[in-house]
């Protein structure tokens, strides 16, 4: 189906149906789910100053101590650059420490 026929078929819908086409689209539902997740996460973590990425890095390091940054990123399903940035933030806050050049340990281990 080309763009012209898609736009023509959308024009034939009334405003409520056009709105439903947008709000029922998987991309919209995923975006809204993420907004709701962030709201709930922020409430649950109030005062802890953790983002979803810093939380998963800290939780993964706690459950699997002494991982390299590369392995920690893989297990946490976070790209290596984001993992490195999050680990640096957690180190500055005293929540994570390096055993050597590349291996991380949770502070309480």
Automatic annotation (TrEMBL):
UniProt keywords, alphabetically: Plasmid
InterPro entries xref list: HTH_MarR-typ (IPR000835), WH-like_DNA-bd_sf (IPR036388), WH_DNA-bd_sf (IPR036390)
HTH marR-type domain: residues covered: 50-102
The keyword Transport belongs to this UniProt entry's keyword annotation: no
Cross-referenced Pfam families: MarR_2 (PF12802)
Molecular function GO labels: DNA-binding transcription factor activity
Protein name stated in the entry: Transcriptional regulator, MarR family
Top-level taxonomy: Bacteria, Pseudomonadati, Pseudomonadota, Alphaproteobacteria, Rhodobacterales
